[in-house]
Amino acid sequence: MTQSIVVQVGQCGNQIGFRFWDLALREHSSLNKTGLYDDAVSSFFRNVDTRYSDPADIPVGHGLGKIKDLKARAVLIDMEEGVVNEIMKGPLRGVFDYKQLITDVSGAGNNWAIGHKMYGAKYKEEISETIRRAAELCDCLQCFFVIHSMGGGTGSGLGSFVLNLLHEEYPDIYRFVMAVYPSHEDDVITSPYNSVLAMRQLTDNADCVLPVENQALVDIVNKINQANPKLAERKSSRGHVKAGSAISTGDGGIVKGKDEKPFDSMNNIAANVLLNMTSSARFEGSLNVDLNEITMNLVPFPKMHYLVTSQTPLYSVSDVHIPPRRLDQMFSDAFSKDHQLIKADPKHSLYLACALMVRGKVEVSDIRRNIERLQSSLKFIHWNRDGWKTGLCNVAPVGQPYSLLTIANNTCVHHTFSGLRDRFVKLYKRKVMYVVYPWKNNSKHVSQHI
Fold first, then answer.
1. For the segment 194-207, what is each residue's pLDDT rounded down to a tens digit?
2. What letter does residue 43 receive in the DSSP assignment?
3. Are 182 and 214 in contact (CB under 8 A)?
4. In sequence order, what DSSP letters do the residues of 203-218 get, joined into one string?
5. How do residues 223-258 score in pLDDT, each as one tens digit?
6. Helix (H) or strand (E) holding 26
7. Vertex 183, ends 181 and 185: CA angle to 5°?
8. What's the burial of 433, exposed, middle or buried (CB within 10 Å: 0-12/13-18/19+)?
9. Is 165 helix (H, G, I), strand (E, B) or coil?
10. Closest CA relative to residue 34, chosen from 66, 81, 5, 4
């Protein structure tokens, strides 16, 4: 069994990572009733004996060993220590190893140059050593997941620096990046600068990039909330959301009540993408898809690795009188613009390849039937008209009978990048905040990317 390391950078990266670990624990605890440390748990967690001053890792063995103390295979990095300190005081504080934390006090001031140039040079050795320590604790390291935002200083600057470091020191290990892009109404005026400068690093050093737009997350959360009436209205409503089934909720996890944060519902959606994408690597299934197969099948050329994701269903209906949502509807929803994690309509753009990651009680024949049904309405590139990759994991997500994650290499991502470029040009032409960025050293990269 392979292992993966999650590198969380900046406020956004650490908040999404925090929700990922809570949901991962919820998923494994719902399945692993005996408390055994097996291959599935070992993919993201270490089993540690904390009775000693220098805690020792307990190997999986033959799957007969009991879980002593789980530690996440994570590296937490933030140049403003508030979020990390809050995590280490919260209900998941025991999951993270203090040796895997890297923080500063002043922050990057929403400036890519400070995060990448100043803090990158200052903490390069410490970051390299911390990641090396996490890698040495893996039996078979398969990939890194880097989570960060594109609009902030630490996320864009130091996040892209860490990605470059991973490319140099671990060239044979896959690097998956979840990058959160700012919305058009973002309150950080320098976010277009930060995003454009960071994208150069993502294009050169990542194997796969999963772009996520803040506005798309907001729209999905609103869609779920509209389907879930207020308590006062539930008596007369026949179709409210089944408790714990929405992809925006963390019900059943360790974090409860007062520990929940305002943006947790949005972060849960992003965290569920990583959970569903790695489900085949953690659980059994009739069509398991390894992480390396995603890059192999969806990335035709090295730098064309920006993949659009969508998730369905968003929730399950709790009323027993309403029949469960048909599988065909789930597949249709996956290709609608309302379920995409970026603000774009993939049906009006060109597909280079597409992966369907299905979980739950679904037959292979159902997947094939829906591919044939949808293929005529989707535009595929002429040299890859049958560019489908399918995965089927037998274990359904918590609270749902089945789910579908689509990962598509689609040209609709161009609209997101074009809008970002236009906002960048408006600022750049007016020399807004011009003096705080090292344009002289990066003018070539900027002109190439624009």
1. 999 999 999 999 99
2. T
3. yes
4. HHH-SEEEEEEHHHHH
5. 988 887 643 344 344 456 677 778 888 888 888 766
6. helix 10-31
7. 150
8. middle
9. helix
10. 66
